[in-house]
Amino acid sequence: MSVNFGTKRIVVGAHYGLRDWLAQRVTAVLMALFTLLVLVQLIFGKGPIGYNQWAGIFSPQWMKVLTFAVIIALLLHVWVGVRDIWMDYIKPVWLRLSLQVVTIVWLVACAGWAIQVLWRL
């Protein structure tokens, strides 16, 4: 005997599906394009690859802003992936919530560190 719930669908979970799938793909494409940009600058740069060439690549303000945007994309990419792992494999709610909080704190700390590295604060 089936139970009819009317026209409303009963959905389980937190409704992250399409938004998270799209976030993963968009951030992955952004990171891949940034990686290609840096590789092109390294390949066509003059002289040996060392500190001076790396510093030269990341010294313009536009490159610092672009790098920070990619770091934010990376952090979002990581958050979606790790959160899904916690939701799929950690069943006790208190432990899952604790791990999610630790993950958020860690990612915010990484963003702060990235700001310090890029702008030498």
CATH class: Mainly Alpha
Radius of gyration: 20 Å
Largest sheet entry: none
Measured by DSSP, the beta-strand proportion falls in under 5%
Spell out the blueprint of helices and strands.
Blueprint: H1 17-43, H2 51-58, H3 61-89, H4 93-119
Helix pairs in contact: 1-3, 3-4
Describe the structure.
It is a single chain. The chain has 121 residues and is mainly α. The protein has a single domain, classed as 3 helical TM bundles of succinate and fumarate reductases. The protein is 75% helix and 0% strand. It has 4 helices and no strands. α1 (17-43) runs antiparallel to α3 (61-89) and α3 (61-89) packs antiparallel against α4. The longest helix is centred in the middle third of the chain and has 29 residues, at 61-89. The protein is elongated. The chain starts with 16 loop residues before the first helix and ends with a helix.
Quick gist of this model?
With 121 residues, the chain is mainly α.
Keywords summarizing the entry:
elongated, 4 helices, 121 residues, 3 helical TM bundles of succinate and fumarate reductases, 0% strand, mainly alpha
